[in-house]
Amino acid sequence: MEEAIVRKKKIFSGIQPSGELTLGSYMGAIRNWNALQSEYDCVYCIVDLHAITVRQDPAQLRRRCLTQLAQYVACGLDPEKCILFIQSHVPEHTELSWILGCYTQFGELSRMTQFKQKSQQHADNITAGLFTYPVLMASDILLYQADAVPVGADQKQHVELCRDIAQRFNGVYGDVFTLPEPLIPQVGARIMSLSNPANKMSKSEPDGCVNLLDKPEDIRRKFKRAVTDSETVVRFDPESKPGVSNLLTIYAAATGKTITDAETEFVAGGYGNFKAAVGDAVIELFRPIREESERLLSDKAYLEGLYRLGAERAHVIAQKTLRKVHKKLGFLPR
Ligand code: TYM
Asked: How many domains does the chain have?
């Protein structure tokens, strides 16, 4: 009897090395990356080309890329199961980006929420790179023919644009690209800032942001100061209690409990106890990651070997897609 050949689904995602990895990027993305790696063909990237859309200090960027790789591994991403690499090491990303830019509308890019926000934040440096950033992101995803892209809620719009670009290209040239779906977690898709729960937790607001490598005392202090409200009831209600709801989400995601169970657990005891318990849960979640990252960072040769091998493996896949694209476009073979 003939066996059906089942193609393993392909996954691609990346994080910018523009700061430390945060609780937000862990809950929104990395946790899901981990869960997917045993079942699918996963490619995870450190997107340094994206990071330079705003100014970076060269020495710091170098250090952050290596630290981020160590953290990927320390979080449980297994280099035997998935491909881990650095975006600038695989030149096909920028090559395909130019091509896809010729299939993307100015109007589409103008509508991107992240562009609008970042061009406000960096009003003195609104570069073409910041504007065309989603095209590079589409290239990342399409080069690996990804079926799904595990990201937090803020990246959904970019994945949808990627899909539109792919569909447009396929419409002209036939089935070149797989159409990707965003994969957004049920809990933790949008972790809010601890100091201002109306905003997303992000590296640009350090007070409200918890980093994977923060010392336990710093994590404890940040949670202790977390903004809540003038009531005393621990209840999940993102509209009228954004601070408390965010803390409940973090607690549920960190412990694997449901939000309802978490509400019951803190029904008595006030906000002080509650905030301390959420802080402790995050400290325990990150402790092994921090310790393993530190251990890995002391072995630079291992990390270098890892990213070189990752780039080689990624390049093989990326090259195949780019060749196909060149052929479809009518470029003469080299
Ligand atoms: P970046 O580097 O801003 O964030 C990395 C990932 O973490 C998620 N995330 C969050 N999730 C929940 N709550 C938060 N507060 C939070 N903050 C960040 C993001 O949704 C993201 O999944 N453009 C991307 C990087 C990128 C990429 C790609 C992603 C480049 N190419 C291809 C997927 C596929 C970005 O800036 O993510």
From this structure: 2
Q: How far is the CA of 99 from the centre of ligand 1 (A)?
A: 23
Select from 95, 125, 103 the least CA-distant residue to 173: 103
Give the pLDDT confidence score for residue 179 in this predicted structure: 98
Going by alpha carbons, the residue nearest to atom 22 of ligand 1 is 151
The answer to whether the CB of 146 is under 6 A from ligand 1 is: no
The pLDDT tens digits for 263-322 are: 999 998 899 999 999 999 999 999 999 999 999 999 999 999 999 999 999 999 999 999
Q: How far is the CA of 111 from the centre of ligand 1 (A)?
A: 18
Residue 5 above 80 pLDDT? no
Q: Say if CB 226 and CB 247 are below 8 A apart.
A: yes
Give the predicted TM-score (pTM) of the model. Answer: 0.96
Please give the positions annotated as active site: 118, 200, 203
Question: Is the CB of 277 within 6 Å of ligand 1?
Answer: no
14 Cβ closer than 6 Å to some ligand 1 atom:
yes
Q: What's the chain's length in residues?
A: 334
Q: Is the CB of 47 under 6 A from ligand 1?
A: yes
If asked whether residues 36 and 133 sit together in one domain, one would say: yes
CATH number at residue 253: 1.10.240.10
Within this chain, do residues 87 and 41 fall inside the same structural domain, yes or no? yes
154 Cβ inside 6 Å of ligand 1: yes
Beta carbons within 8 Å of 86's beta carbon, 6+ residues apart: 45, 46, 48, 65, 69, 307, 310, 311
- Would you call 29 exposed, middle or buried from its count of C-beta atoms within 10 A (0-12, 13-18, 19+)? buried
Q: Rounded mean pLDDT of the chain?
A: 96
User: What is the whole-number distance in angstroms between the Cα of residue 13 and the centre of ligand 1?
Assistant: 8
**Domain span including residue 172:** 10-189+300-329
